[in-house]
Amino acid sequence: MTNHQRVGAVSNAHAGREFEADAREYFMREEGLNLEGGLSVEIGVGTLKKSHGYDLGSESPPVIVECKSHNWTETGNMPSAKVTMWNEAMYFFHLAPTRFRKVLFVLKAQHPSRKETLAEYYIRLYSHLIPQGVEVVEYDPSSKKARHLKNAV
């Protein structure tokens, strides 16, 4: 196990795949959406485009989902490198075609010393980077329930 290995997980990649499976099951159960893994969408600035694979998605209906199962650090600090990945996801959502529904599906991460979840913290500090229309959905794997968070902007 490395210093950055998730406690209790075989590997961080394995934990990510399990979370994507949770997301896929959630969208099927709650919305009847059959999302495929690794949906490729042409994104880019202007006329130059390149294929980008989203964690989950569907062409019909057009939906793209990025899954992030990040947590606070053990000491309750914001995981800055992980939040950078959330910002990158927002940029990729911004570049994606407008016909797609865009969802950031995140783990409900509550630290005992914090009054807000990681997603609430992210929205409070980085709402200026969240494109209009992007949904932030916070998922609790223990209850299998999700909460749709509103962008503060």
Secondary-structure element order, N to C: HEEEHEHEE
Beta-strand content estimate: 25-35%
User: How many runs of DSSP E, i.e. beta strands?
Assistant: 6
Quaternary structure classification: single chain
Which outline best applies?
globular
N-to-C CA distance: 40 Å
Radius of gyration: 15 Å
Number of helices: 3
Describe this structure in words.
It is a single chain. The protein has helices at 12-31, 80-95, 118-126, and strands at residues 36-43, 50-59, 62-68, 101-107, 135-140, 145-149. The protein contains 3 helices and 6 strands; from the N terminus they run H-E-E-E-H-E-H-E-E. The chain is of the alpha/beta class. The chain has one domain: 3-Layer(aba) Sandwich (Trna Endonuclease, Chain: A, domain 1), CATH 3.40.1350.
In a nutshell, what does this entry contain?
About 30% of the residues lie in helices and about 30% in strands. With about 150 residues, the chain is an alpha/beta fold.
